[in-house]
Amino acid sequence: MGIIDKLNKDFESRVRLGIMSVLMVNDWVDFTEMKTLLDITDGNLASHSSALEKAAYIEVKKEFVGKKPKTSYKVTDLGRAAFKEHLSYLEKLMKS
Q1: CB 54 within 8 A of CB 76
Q2: Which residues contact 2 (CB under 8 A, 6 or more apart)?
Q3: Edge-to-edge, what's the strand order for the sheet holding 29-30?
Q4: The pTM of the whole model exceeds 0.90
């Protein structure tokens, strides 16, 4: 099995790479801030964050602030470890 096979398919999309990168250096990030940082649509963020949540790489918190719904994201310990491993394989791939 080569290095390329060890890359995590859950992080192949640039949007998921972006979400994980933002969450690795921030605690909780809300939907609007994430959407703005990555310059993506609501639907794009919703579908990719949902896939990352399903894989247990991120935690999604939905709450109401006043009468407005607010969705926020946070990386899980599993997500942090998986993303670090993915990045280390990317580094090895670049050096080979």
Answers
A1: no
A2: none
A3: 29-30, 68-75, 58-65
A4: yes
The SS3 of residue 69 is strand
Residue 48 makes CB contacts below 8 A (sequence gap 6+) with 13, 15, 16, 19
Residues in CB range of 5: below 8 A, 6 or more apart:
none
Length of the chain measured in residues: 96
Locate tokens 């640039």: which residue? 14
Q: Which residue is associated with the tokens 């609501």?
A: 42
If one looks up domain 3-95 in CATH, what number appears?
A: 1.10.10.10
pLDDT per position as a tens digit, 8-36: 999 999 999 999 999 999 999 999 999 99
Q: 3-state DSSP call for residue 67?
A: coil
Sign of CA dihedral 13, 56, 93, 37: positive
Neighbour-count burial for 40-62, b at 16+ CB within 10 Å, e otherwise? beeeebeebbebbeebebbeeee
